[in-house]
Amino acid sequence: MNREKEEKTPQGNSGQPVYLDRVRELVEETQYGTVTIIVQDGKVIQVDRTEKFRL
After folding, report:
1. What is the DSSP letter of 34?
2. Domain-embedded: residue 9
3. pTM of whole model > 0.85?
């Protein structure tokens, strides 16, 4: 019987997955722009931030 290894998501100080803390920080730091979360096979693999500067 084959069992896939279940990789656990690293937990931060708040007990939440580490990426949630980082996403929260990025959203709070972004005045105008987007924060994009890339998911593959049900796991967050990348977080992108695009910021726009208003002149």
Report:
1. E
2. no
3. no
* Domains in the chain, number: 1
Greater pLDDT, 37 or 54 = 37
Residue 4 in domain: no
Give dist(CA 32, CA 14) in Å, integer. Answer: 27
Please provide residue 34's backbone torsions phi and psi, each rounded to the nearest 5 degrees: -135, 150
- The C-alpha atoms of residue 31 and residue 44 are separated, in whole angstroms, by 23
Q: Are 32 and 53 in contact (CB under 8 A)?
A: yes
- pLDDT classification of 16: cutoffs 50, 70, 90: confident
Asked if 10 contacts 24 with a C-beta cutoff of 8 angstroms, the reply is no
Q: Which domain holds residue 30?
A: 18-50
Amino acid 5: pLDDT: 53
